[in-house]
Amino acid sequence: MANLLFVLGTRPEVIKLAPVIAAFRAHGAPFSVQVCVTGQHRQLLDQMLNIFSIKPDFDLNLMQENQTLASLTGRIINSVNDLLAREKPDWIFVQGDTTTVMAASLAAYYNNIKVAHIEAGLRTGDKYSPFPEEINRRVAACVADLHLAPTKWARQNLLRENVGPEKIHVTGNTAIDALLYMREKNKTHGPELMEKLTGLGLPADLSKMVLITGHRRENFGTGFREICLAIRELAALHPECLFLYPVHLNPNVQKPVFEIIGNVPNVKLLPPLGYPEFVFLMEKSYLILTDSGGVQEEAPSLGKPVLVMRTTTERPEAVQANTAKLVGANKETIIANVRLLLENKDEYNRMAAAINPYGDGKASQRILAIFNSLLK
Ligand code: UD1
Ligand code: UDP
Fold first, then answer.
1. What's the gap in Å between 215 CA and the centre of ligand 2?
2. Probe target for ligand 1 pocket from 16, 40, 41, 309, with the most ligand atoms within 8 Å of CB
3. How do residues 249-260 score in pLDDT, each as one tens digit?
4. pLDDT at 363 over 90
5. 8 A C-beta contact, residue 295 and residue 279
6. Which residue lies with its CA nearest to atom 11 of ligand 1?
7. Using CA positions, which residue lies closest to atom 10 of ligand 2?
8. Interval 287-313 mean pLDDT
9. For residues 10 and 45, is the Cβ–Cβ distance under 8 A?
10. Rounded distance, CA 127 to CA 112, Å?
11. Distance (Å, rounded) from C-alpha 5 to C-alpha 11?
């Protein structure tokens, strides 16, 4: 028997690990699967655990209001360390580049436990952008025994850092497994989802809707102010458009967003949405404005132009394919690029082609197959 422990802490980790956990659980022996949540996020984590029906075996419940990186890191290392010393799994699985990933990987290393890193090899080359994710994933890469890279480009990054080729597998991103699963499931729940959303005050006609998300630490302060001022001006320039923004629970995001665009008639601020509702809205949207990692992967698969409010991206494939564009967190650049897509149909059509650089929906099955062959 191989004892596997999935360690996760935030919203995107649940979404991207849910298909992998389901695949290993459905396979059964020789795998025994347990789930530990650090609780780096509390409400956002629970929302997604409920949606994917994941009941954690261990809940470390570590979130604190407006937590600092150092205090969170310390709490996770200590708590995961104690758990690993007690449970002694053969492998831990981590996904992505959050503090949970970095700290749990180190705790596993201290306990001589193997680490499988899903979504390995993403890099911007700039240690402060995204902050602290670029360093989190590099630490995870130093420690990992198995690197499950989503794309060939990610594999190249790992090879450049002298990771042995035998330890790297290109699997596709499990985000696309989750997305395709939810899109299919939503097909039979359209009226219910619409009813839920109209209950939140959304109009039935969402044909000119700009969907917005944002939460990156490097955008706190000036960046978020610029983003909100841009949205306010765009809303005035385009009263026929609805600017829909489910606001992340981080207080550094909530404060400027509600202060600057809390009272604009065609800006609708919502609480963070469940994954089915969010996927439904991505499909209905005209374009997407975001600094999120996961949304950058999902939008191209849905044929939605995505303007990325960052100066760097570790997901260059969609930028190279012209369906994503970096616009920074700069008011004038955001306004100019959103206007271009709203006002120039040719430009819009050029960016709206559906492409699939991040996966085909089978990443979890590939990861399962890799582990099966590892045990032979
Ligand atoms: C974290 C990750 C980021 C990831 C993002 C996904 C780190 C350093 N950051 O950022 O990589 O893209 O999650 O959303 O790992 N909060 C709540 N309830 C919640 C979640 C957050 O109240 O359910 C508030 C708390 O005050 C918390 C703060 O947000 O202290 C920050 O949470 P944290 O996980 O440290 O950072 P995020 O910005 O959410
Ligand atoms: N998402 C969601 N509800 C929302 C906003 C985002 O379900 O209100 C999903 C989105 O589809 C994607 C993931 O959450 O799969 C992205 O999470 P986030 O942007 O918080 O983190 P990142 O991907 O930047 O690490």
1. 10
2. 41
3. 999 999 999 999
4. yes
5. no
6. 98
7. 295
8. 97
9. yes
10. 27
11. 18
Domains and CATH numbers, the chain: 2-173+360-374 (3.40.50.2000), 190-352 (3.40.50.2000)
Residue with CA nearest ligand 2 atom 7: 275
Give me the chain's average pLDDT, please: 97
pLDDT for residue 376: 78
Q: What percent of the chain has pLDDT over 70?
A: 100
The residues annotated with a catalytic role in the active site are: 97, 119, 133, 215, 217, 248
Determine the length of the chain.
Answer: 376
- Which pTM does this prediction carry? 0.98
Instruction: Tell me whether the omega of the peptide bond preceding residue 89 falls within 30 degrees of 0, making it cis.
Output: no
User: Is 261 buried (19+), middle (13-18) or exposed (0-12) by CB count in 10 A?
Assistant: buried
What is residue 80's three-state secondary structure?
A: helix
What pLDDT, on the 0 to 100 scale, is given for residue 354?
82
Q: Residue 348 and residue 344: Cα distance in Å, rounded?
A: 6
Identity of the amino acid at 107 = A
Average pLDDT rounded to a whole number, residues 273-285: 97
DSSP state string for 334-374: HHHHHHHHHH-HHHHHHH-----TT--S-HHHHHHHHHHHH
Distance 80 CA to ligand 1 centre (A): 18
Q: Give residue 60's Cα distance to chain centre.
A: 21
Mean pLDDT for the stretch of residues 16-45: 98
